[in-house]
Amino acid sequence: MTLRWLRRPVCVNLLLAILFSPFVLSSCSTEKAKWGNIQYHNTTCHYNVWWNGNESLKQGREKLHASVVDDYTRFLLPENIGTDDNARAVNPEMDRAIEKGVKGIKKHSIYVKGEEHVPYIKECYLLTAYATFYKHDFASTANTCNILVSQFAGTRAGDEGAVLLARCLVAEKRYAEAEAALDQLVVNLGKGNFNRSVREKLYMATVEATVPQEKYKKAVEYIHQAVSVSHSSRHKARLTFLMAQIYQHLDKRPVAAKYYHEVLRYGPEYVMEFNARLGE
Q1: pLDDT tens, the chain, 280 aa long
Q2: Which of 193, 156, 162 is nearest to 180 (CA)?
Q3: Could you tell me which residues are beta bridge partners of residue 112?
Q4: Residue 21 φ/ψ, nearest 5 degrees
Q5: Strands 115-116 and 111-112
Q6: Are 260 and 276 in contact (CB under 8 A)?
Q7: How far apart, in whole angstroms, are the C-alpha atoms of residue 253 and residue 168?
């Protein structure tokens, strides 16, 4: 019988790592960047550590979003991470995510000659950064993001860490500093020096930084940018609703009505609020 599962790249990598890794002969060293060492530690870090931590992060984030109540008398946030009380409610999930992230880094990092050789280590740093962010431990998040930015410059994880670092500034109401940092990342994107897969996060963070400064023209520009690249109906709905709120605030009611109508395409949960807004 043909073992079809052996054809899968993950299984092949795992088998090769087991068969040829120095783990079999010398406890799989993390001091030498040999191919077998790297394959073993990357595969083990991914499936035994990071995956479980990332599942806990996702569960905690969903629980957090479900517990947060938006105030529609104020501008809607692109992502509402709630109050400190909301954050404390997801401590168990986030603490587990942090535990897994730290474990992955400590047990599986192969940092030799100023370079990390295990790809999933940067994912463990990101995992830890997001978990502390949703706990509202912004100082710890900033520390982890600084490692991502310095150690993994030029990678998706490094760029995502830079955006999350700016979001920490937003959370601390240091809006002008956050905006300046994000503007530089936008410049980098234009020069091809920023990972395009992180564009949505970059644009949404820029909206977070500009709306509180009443820079509505710039905020609307980046809302359009974020909506155009987003694959999330939830994100599109929130951003479009925010755009409608901005135009209503600027007393451009026909334009506001247009965007309130557009929200209906993304989800029925906004219908009641949409109707209430039009009736004001």
Answers
A1: 444 444 444 544 554 444 444 444 444 778 787 899 999 999 999 999 999 999 999 999 999 999 999 998 899 999 999 999 999 999 999 999 999 999 999 999 999 999 999 999 999 999 999 999 999 999 999 999 999 999 999 999 999 999 999 999 999 999 999 999 999 999 999 999 999 999 999 999 999 999 999 999 999 999 999 999 999 999 999 999 999 999 999 999 999 999 999 998 887 666 555 555 555 5
A2: 162
A3: 115
A4: -70, 145
A5: antiparallel
A6: no
A7: 33
3-class SS string, the chain: CCCHHHHCHHHHHHHHHHHHCCHHHHCCCCCCCCHHHHHHHHHHHHHHHHHHHHHHHHHHHHHHHHHCCCCCCCCCCCCCCCCHHHHHHCHHHHHHHHHHHHHHHHHHCCEECCEECCCHHHHHHHHHHHHHHHCCCHHHHHHHHHHHHHHCCCCHHHHHHHHHHHHHHHHCCCHHHHHHHHHHHHHHHHCCCCCHHHHHHHHHHHHHHHHHHCCHHHHHHHHHHHHHHCCCHHHHHHHHHHHHHHHHHCCCHHHHHHHHHHHCCCCHHHHHHHHHHHCC
Length of the chain in terms of residues written: 280
How many Å apart are CA 176 and CA 212, to the nearest integer?
Answer: 10
Instruction: Enter the tokens of residue 188.
Output: 């980098």
Residue at 270: amino acid letter: Y
Tokens, residue 30:
């993390």
